[in-house]
Structures are given as C-alpha cells and as structure tokens.
Amino acid sequence: MSTSTTTAGGAGRGPLRTTATVAGVTGGALAATAAVSSVGAAAYFARRALTPDRQRPDDTSILAVDEDVVTLGLTPETVMPGRYGLWLDQSTGHARLGDLLDVDEERGRVRREVLGVDRGHLAPGFGRWNQYFYAGPPDRALGVRTEYVDVLTELGTMPAWVVRSTTPSTRWAVLVHGRGARRDEGLRAVRPLVENGVNVIVPSYRNDLGARRGADGRYNLGLSEWRDIEDAGLWAVQQGARELVLVGWSMGGAIVLQTLSRSWLADHVSHVVLDAPVVDWTDVLRHHARIHGIPDPIGGLSRVLMGKRWARRLVGVHDPVDVAETDWVSRAGELRHRMLVIHSVDDEFVPVGPSQALAAGRPDLVTMERWETARHTKEWNVDPERWERSVADFVSS
User: Fold this and answer.
1) Average pLDDT score over residue span 243-250
2) Residue 5 pLDDT > 80, yes or no?
3) Transmembrane residues, as ranges (predicted)?
4) Which spans in the chain are helix H?
5) pTM
6) Cβ atoms of 128 and 120 closer than 8 Å
7) Percentage of the chain modeled with pLDDT above 70
C-alpha cells in the first residue's frame, strides 16, 4: 500500500515537476535574455550619446537659385526667422542666408535671401543647415586680424584662433563650442567681445575634427574636455590675461561648468556666458531617449552604465562618465561666478527647464535671458542685436 501510494504519487507528481522545471528554466532563460537585451540596448544608446558625429549628411534640399534668392525645401530649420549658414558639397563650400522672403506650405518650399557665398558654388542639389552663419577662420569670415596658434594640452597641441582687442587689454574670453559643432560656432561672439576690450581665443578640444583624439575617441560630456579648455585659458594667462570670460554653447556650457568646478583657472574667471547650455545631462539624455522611443528604464540603465567602471568596455569609454556630476541644478550651491544664461524656451535639443531652475536657484549669480522662437543655439540668429547687446553689457559690467 505504502509502496503503491508512493509510486502512484510519484507517477502523479512526476509530469508536474517536469513541467514546472521546464517552465522555470524557460522563464529564467527569457528573463536572462531580456536582461541581456536591455543591457545591450542601454549600452548602444550610451555609445550613441558619447560618439562624435564625424560626418553629417547634406540633407537640406536646394531647389532653385536665382541670383540673390534661394529656394529650399521646407523644414523646421529652413523656416526659422533670422540669418543662417548653409554648408555646400559636404562642407567644402558655404553660403550665408538672410531672413525668409516667403513660405509655400502647400508646395513645401521656402525662399530666402542670399547674403553671400564664402566658398564653393550655390546650386540646386543638397546642403546642410547651420546656425554658425560665419564659417572659417575669423580673418576670412569676419575680416579681423587672426593668429593661428597651437595650445599645448595633455594630448598634444590643439589648434586655436586668436583675435586681440584693438586696444591693449588683460581681459580674455575663451569660446567653447558644443557637441559635434565646430569652432565656427563661436565666431558670432567675437565682435561684441573684441569691441568691448576683450581678447578672444577660440580653441579646439579633444575629438574635434582636426584635433587630437581622446583616450577613447568619445565625448565625456565635459568631464574630460574641460582640461583642454583649462589649457586654452593657461595660454591666455601666459599672454598676460589677468581676467577670463568663459563662453559656452550647448555641451560647451557643460564643459565651462566643469572648468569652473575643477580648474585652478576658476580664480581668474570674472564672467560666464552660457548659450543653450547643458546644465544637467540627465535631463538632456532622458529627453533624447523619449523622442527616440527608448523606454525610461533603458534610458536610465544607459546612464548607470556610463558611470560604472565594469561597464567601460560596453560603453566604449576609457574612464567612467558619472552623469550625476553634470547636474548643476543640484550643485547650484557650489557656483560662485556671475553668469548670463541665454536660452530659448522652445529648444528642441537641450530643454530649457534646467537653465530656468538654475536661474531660480541662484538669482544672486545667474541672469536669465529668455528667447521665444530660437530653438537650439540660434538665439543670435533670430535677434543678433539683442544677443550682442546682452553679452556686451554683461561682460562690461
């Protein structure tokens, strides 16, 4: 009886145990696969966020050119008010465009004034929009005397442009461009600074086109790039600078903030100008994850992986990138420099929220200039007179 019961019981429970075991193994395998997939997706997003864009496609349609008028395909960029640049032939050529003449929404095209062709040939085909407006070294773009210098950094020499004030001055500005941008981005600030007695250096930093590669060839969100800006500031000090003004656009703002926090040169800084700055990379990365349809848990995991030493190979970085160190809303109490923050409320790339929070948290130091329709780093383009006046007044105060 006992044996029979055991056998019967064994026979009855055997298939159930087997099914449960298979289900457990299958569930575990699926969970492991999902975990691996999540880590893979998070690592991919982290790599994309940290990888420089070496070549960008010509993606703006040039439909017709009629002397000093160009017809372009209608895009969120080409319909913007103001003055802009247009790269031609994979950035070998460049044209400067004026304001909108008319918009034909039905046919999907806009007409803009052509203010000049700096190099190359403006013809039907494709180009690439830019907010720099001015392109090339300052002597060619602005008609001002320019020195071509090499700044010594820990990675070797980095090229820089120098424009000196027309009157002798011990004030110097370091202009720091944004992620994937060129030094040309800073040219819009040269005149209002030089005309107010401030010498200007426009440096390169690691992983720029034409500059030294970092240890991993990836952006570190300002956590390593600041060293190259420190070296540019040191070059200015060696030239007699007794006072520094730091100016940063987009990720250049994040680099400037790290320079203020980490560099001995911070004691020489009197004024800081930030245009559409990355004040908190967590906010920016979360924003880009959402617009690319990446679930919040994957986006959050990508930021965790960036900062973990064991995940360096997955993310492709030489040193961990601790995104929390870039949160200047939380670190606002550490700031001690006067800042002018220029940021458009409709910025589609770096949301304005952290800039507003920083200004609200440190009204004793931060002056906020709000733009309404400039999107990302195009405040000067939309209203150059206001931008230059605001910067000139701030650095002169």
Assistant:
1) 98
2) no
3) 20-46
4) 2-50, 138-141, 190-194, 226-238, 251-262, 281-291, 296-306, 312-315, 353-361, 379-382, 384-396
5) 0.91
6) no
7) 91
Q: What is the mean pLDDT of the chain?
A: 92
Q: What is the spatial order of strands in the sheet that 171-176 belongs to?
A: 147-153, 156-163, 199-203, 171-176, 243-249, 269-275, 338-344, 366-371
C-alpha pair distances (Å), 18 with each of 22, 112, 386: 6, 73, 76
Arithmetic mean of pLDDT, 144-168: 97
- Assess whether pLDDT exceeds 50 at residue 7: no
Distance CA 352, CA 344 (A): 7
- What does the DSSP assignment read for 254-273? HHHHHHHHH-GGGGGEEEEE
Closest CA to 75 of 48, 121, 112: 112
Final residue of a structural domain among 80, 101, 130: 130
Per-residue confidence band for 56, with pLDDT thresholds at 50, 70 and 90: confident
Largest CA-CA distance found in the chain, in angstroms, rounded: 111
What is the β-pairing status of strands 199-203 and 156-163?
A: antiparallel
Give yes or no: residues 355 and 221 share one domain.
Answer: yes
Tokens encoding 183: 């030094």
Question: Do 254 and 173 fall into the same domain?
Answer: yes
Least confident of 35-44, 84-93, 119-128: 35-44
Place of tokens 């009886």: 1
Q: Which residue is associated with the tokens 């040309």?
A: 184
Range of the domain at 111: 60-130
Would you state the pLDDT for residue 36? Answer: 64
Q: What angle do CA 285, 307, 54 make, to 5 degrees?
A: 55
The domain boundary, picked from 130, 158, 188, lies at: 130
Same domain as 214, residue 156: yes
Number of structural domains in the chain: 2
